[in-house]
């Protein structure tokens, strides 16, 4: 019986010929990443139990300051300074305000065949380039950081076959929200999601990352796209022609999936995740006319250059309603610089949007926090009460196009009117 790409990735990292769902393997970790939301917890654990043994973190660790940057309080700065000191002491690469951790892992580290663990639930984003990637808690992170290995139970795979092409006004964000609505917030708990088919092969890596990144909102442990020529193009664009392109694995024709879904992109329409759950999915048309006070384009799901181009395409020559605050946060410094080169920042600023530094921003609620009674429409990943500020605010999740179109009129708007 054949193996899925996820089973192959884990078998390879464990140095065994086969891996089957349910097996618990000890795998070598290609990269382990942590950010300023939780690293201080891991450092305290390390210092309490391991420091006196002279143990050092191996070179496969990456630190990122992205959740609260610039820091909003002396307390946060203290935790970040702890990260900075630890990184210096152990020679750990530290990305300090350069972008959201998952975007940096995608741009600079992960490659096909890797196994990536991170102390953040959206670590699975690296699956967009054919790696096994998953979030872990601080304890498992510390173990991986000091040993270069960790345990993992092989997840069964849900295969999502995608055909057709995206209609005007419908984007990768709409696709992943459809999937979350169909599976439910717990529909893929401890499963691997494997996206494939001509509809995915036609997407670029930026769009694939949007599909993969929110798999955790359906409970997925990991989510992956089989690497191909587009993957190689992306890696060479980001890291140079001689980049190590790793191991391009693919699922065997006779592998076993636990479940299969099929999407024809041409049949999809723009959707929103309406308050207060991420799997509350409805067509945008069902909420047209709902007044909003705040908009956000950004996050590790939808803050890439592809997303900024989409939002700018709607805003070009138009104005954000003065009563609405639209915040744009590029997912990384390189996205920010690319957007400057393409004149997208001029479009945002001329429309009345506010452009902030590369960070988690409104998605995490550390910037642009909403107040009681505010209605936020966001390209972020979660919409539970209090996610982006007041518990008494409301959050709709949507594509960059729906967010931009909504901020022009001040109420939820079908972006197809603007394309
Ligand atoms: C790190 C942690 C605070 C959290 C996560 O693990 O996802 C955050 O990034 C989020 O999106 O809620
Ligand atoms: S952008 Fe949002 S989802 Fe992504 S890591 Fe930051 S807080 Fe988490």
TrEMBL record:
UniProt-listed Gene3D superfamilies: Aconitase, domain 3
Cofactor note: Binds 1 [4Fe-4S] cluster per subunit.
Pfam families hit by this protein: Aconitase
Domain Aconitase/3-isopropylmalate dehydratase large subunit alpha/beta/alpha stretches: 23-285, 286-410
Cofactor: [4Fe-4S] cluster
Keyword Hydrolase assigned: no
Metabolic or biological pathway: Amino-acid biosynthesis; L-leucine biosynthesis; L-leucine from 3-methyl-2-oxobutanoate: step 2/4
Keywords: 4Fe-4S, Amino-acid biosynthesis, Branched-chain amino acid biosynthesis, Iron, Iron-sulfur, Leucine biosynthesis, Lyase, Metal-binding
Enzyme kind, highest EC tier: lyase
Amino acids binding [4Fe-4S] cluster: 300, 360, 363
Catalytic activity, EC: 4.2.1.33
InterPro entries for this protein: Acnase/IPM_dHydase_lsu_aba_1/3, Acoase/IPM_deHydtase_lsu_aba, Aconitase_4Fe-4S_dom, HAcnase/IPMdehydase_lsu_prok, Homoacnase/IPMdehydase_lsu, IPM_dehydratase_rel_enz
Catalyses which reaction(s): (2R,3S)-3-isopropylmalate = (2S)-2-isopropylmalate
Function: Catalyzes the isomerization between 2-isopropylmalate and 3-isopropylmalate, via the formation of 2-isopropylmaleate.
Family: Belongs to the aconitase/IPM isomerase family. LeuC type 2 subfamily.
Subunit composition and interactions: Heterodimer of LeuC and LeuD.
Protein's UniProt name: 3-isopropylmalate dehydratase large subunit
Organism this protein belongs to: Streptomyces varsoviensis
Gene field: leuC
